[in-house]
Amino acid sequence: MADDSQRPIVIKRIKKAGGGAHGGAWKIAYADFVTAMMAFFLLMWLLGSTTKAQMEGIANYFKTPLKVALSGGSGAGDATSIIKGGGQDLTRKAGQVKKGETESKTQSPQSKAEQERVDAARLQELKAKLDKAIESNQKLKQFKNQLKIDITQEGLRIQIVDDKNRPMFDSGGAVMKPYTRDILREIGKTLNQVPNKISLSGHTDAVPYSGGEAGYSNWELSADRANASRRELVAGGLEDGKVLRVVGLGSAIPFDKANPNAPVNRRISIIVMNKKAEEAITQESRQIEAETAQEVADKLNVKQ
After folding, report:
1. What are the boundaries of each domain within the chain?
2. Angle, CA 236 vertex, CA 180 and CA 152 arms, to 5°
3. 248 has which bridge partners?
């Protein structure tokens, strides 16, 4: 038997791996936390961008999921009403209103006053430009006495009046003189410098036609002259769509009230309208259209 002292000594070293108890589980937990936070912020964003009516519609959907499918409509909020938005208020103060859509189209007094101030300043600047153009343009300067420019409640008014020795049109007709064409075409270019709409009106003196008002009268003559002026403004470069109204007023509004037969009463009036006047004309036109449509519908119902 060999001596015990001769036996080899074996040393076992055990290597311990760090983190063996949990490994990479923390990464999964962190990913779940980040996902939950993202879902939370997404929920907060949706709640902030959704209207009260839309949230009620979503809640109603989860209460009765088949409501929209059975009743129709673009959402649960308007499925039970013929009025879009599901409310009873035609001004849309109640019901489904899209985010960013103005519930009331009426402007605050401050914004209206600011708009009127900007509008007035713009028209004053245009008046100054026209006055300057008349002085610097040889074609216009010789007709300076026939050009009347002022500011009215409707906006900037430009009146081209007749002179005893220099009429704008042939007597009793709507054929325009060459120099009148030059005036209107020069004015047409300048009017494009502002976004305001244009109103045109024709005026005559009080001298009647021999046939009276039953046939071709001062009413038709003033309307024809106003339309002839519109054509020349457009030919001079006036942008399409800027003319909102063309009317013939005959001798109803004389320039010289003391002498209704005076040549100065024969004139073309161009009004660069402010926003208030433009809205008034637009509203009046819509009201006339609505009344006309109602009259047509009533006549059709009577015939049936």
Report:
1. 26-78, 109-284
2. 70
3. 202
